[in-house]
Write a structure and sequence with these properties.
Blueprint: H1 6-25, H2 35-44, E1 90-91, H3 92-109, H4 116-136, E2 141-146, H5 149-152, E3 168-172, H6 178-194, H7 200-219, H8 224-228, H9 243-257, H10 260-269, H11 284-296, H12 304-315, E4 327-328, E5 334-335, H13 342-362, E6 366-368, E7 371-373, H14 375-383, H15 396-402, H16 427-430, H17 447-451, H18 482-485, H19 489-505
Antiparallel strand pairs: 1-2, 2-3, 4-5, 6-7
Helix pairs in contact: 2-4, 2-19, 3-4, 3-6, 3-19, 4-6, 6-7, 6-9, 7-9, 9-10, 9-11, 11-12, 11-13, 13-14, 13-19, 14-15
Length: 508
């Protein structure tokens, strides 16, 4: 978007961008990431996380069918869905967030995905088919996970060999879970819009189920962590509480239905907590950015407070903002928390590009006190392209860092570029495929020959984005160091949108 506030504003933005680039790199870095290739691989990754009966067109050929008896402990069919990360458990809380983010990416950037839009829909549907089972298999229950995480995490075995208890977990009126239910409703509602034209009947089923699940979340209040305890904690505790998921779920249902009752519910929540995070656990910032679309794109003044909250969040992210509360490494990477930091980078990058998109559509700008912010300010931070003009220089930065423009010249996406993580913390990737070794290794059989070895993983989990480097831009490439070397569905789901935006905006 062209600058519109004269020379003073232009100088302010230029000085900001120059200092940002110089601070982290010293000199400009030439680069030409292939965003379309990275986009294709980021979506292909989800095939490596599939549970259930794999289809004939499975491209990730080292994976095979698994978990067909999931749900049998409760006499229901809960096969399908995704393993969350490098283990063999199905945690619905992060899986539903993954589904919501993939759906949001497809809604915002589907036109820029080219031939990958079909693969994105397939990745979404693999999750929603499972989530529909979880929401409808037993009246009064929402199933929220399969597999005992405490026993699973003591094993190092392929999903095809699982011999641990496939325990089944659910929430109900007497054991509520407004957080996981709100996120599930968000996922189904967002996905319903993805399939509205491609499969109208399926879209109607998704939306009607989303409404029912959201009603359950609103009516029976409580955190699923309190109801399920060690089955979900400390793995995916709802640390931020459940109010953010009620806001998030209602926001997605408002967008899918335009039913004013959801707006009234949002108003009644009083969900005004300030935040500088966005993740599978904390949805406040995401909901506010989505609600801001009504203020910016639809020019609806009733949503102004959400626009202000979204911009307050962004002011806590931008590195030269007077109100910034976000640390950046010397190499320029946003650094939020030590464990799996890239999950926050990809999720926040999605919000930067998407809010920038809304700003561009409305020719909107704002200020973080003395810092003047345009749409290009946000897009350039998300990408990083220091060789380009200063006017498009800050959602660029972070994507390019992940793809290899960083001090180590390492791509943190497996299979992308010449230099990427080879020893990721992932059971299926690290143990020889069933195609090569059909005999089961058993629970303990994978540790000594495969977990502890310094050899690269035999199976390439193409497209997987790992937890990422440490606060000093270092990366040891050690599968024992799970906080940096483990991939996860919610890391990848959030980067799909920014990659689609840049793939559709640049010629590779």
């Amino acid at each position: 978007m062209a600058l519109t506030r004269g020379l003073a504003s232009s100088l302010c933005l230029s000085v900001f961008l120059f200092s940002f680039t110089f601070l982290f790199w010293g000199t400009s870095v030439e680069g030409n990431p292939n965003y379309r290739d990275a986009l294709a691989k980021s979506i292909l990754f989800f095939q490596g996380q599939r549970s259930g009966r794999l289809p004939g067109g499975q491209e990730m050929s080292w994976r095979f069918t698994s978990g067909l008896s999931d749900g049998s402990f409760a006499n229901v069919d809960l096969s399908g869905g995704y393993y969350d990360a490098g283990d063999n458990v199905k945690f619905n809380f992060p899986m539903a967030f993954t589904t919501t983010m993939l759906s949001w990416a497809t809604l915002e950037y589907g036109r820029k995905m080219g031939p990958e839009v079909g693969n994105a829909r397939a990745a979404i549907r693999w999750a929603t088919d499972y989530l529909l089972k979880c929401a409808t298999a037993t009246p009064g229950r929402l199933y929220v996970g399969v597999g005992d995480p405490n026993t699973d995490h003591k094993c190092w075995e392929r999903p095809e060999d699982m011999d641990t208890a496939r325990s089944v977990y659910w929430v109900s009126s007497s054991s509520p879970g407004s957080d996981v239910a709100g996120e599930t409703a968000a996922a189904l509602a967002a996905a319903s819009m993805v399939f509205r034209k491609a499969d109208p009947k399926y879209a109607r089923l998704l939306l009607s189920t989303a409404k029912n699940v959201m009603q359950f979340a609103m009516q029976y209040r409580g955190a699923y962590s309190d109801s399920l305890g060690s089955a979900v904690c400390p793995f995916y505790c709802s640390y931020s509480g459940y109010k953010d998921e009620l806001l998030w779920g209602a926001t997605w249902l408002l967008r899918a239905t335009h039913d004013v009752s959801y707006f009234n519910f949002i108003q009644s929540l009083g969900a005004n907590d300030a935040t500088d995070l966005f993740s599978w656990d904390n949805k406040y910032a995401g909901a506010r950015v989505l609600l801001s679309r009504n203020a910016l794109v639809e020019n609806d003044k009733a949503f102004e407070r959400f626009r202000q909250q979204a911009e307050d969040f962004i002011c806590h992210i931008l590195p030269n903002s007077p109100s910034s509360s976000t640390q950046y490494t010397q190499g320029g990477l946003m650094y939020k928390l030590g464990e799996s930091n890239l999950q926050y980078v990809t999720s926040i990058t999605f919000l930067l590009t998407t809010y920038g998109k809304y700003m561009s559509a409305s020719r909107h700008t704002f200020n973080c006190e003395s810092l003047y912010v345009t749409a290009n300010t946000l897009k350039a931070l998300a990408k990083k392209q220091a060789s380009r003009s200063l006017s498009i220089q800050i959602a660029d930065f972070l994507v390019d860092y992940i793809l290899g423009e960083n001090p180590l010249k390492m791509s943190y996406m497996v299979g992308y570029g010449a230099y990427y993580p080879k020893r990721i913390h992932h059971r299926g990737s690290s143990i020889p495929s069933v195609a090569i070794h059909p005999q089961s290794f058993g629970c303990d059989g994978g540790f000594q020959p495969f977990f502890y070895t310094a050899n690269p993983n035999p199976n390439v989990l193409t497209g997987a984005v790992v937890g990422g480097p440490n606060q000093n831009d270092g990366y040891p490439d050690d599968r024992k160091d799970y906080s940096h070397s483990e991939p996860a569905t919610y890391i990848n789901a959030a980067i799909v949108g920014p990659l689609a935006y840049f793939a559709g905006s640049h010629t590779n």
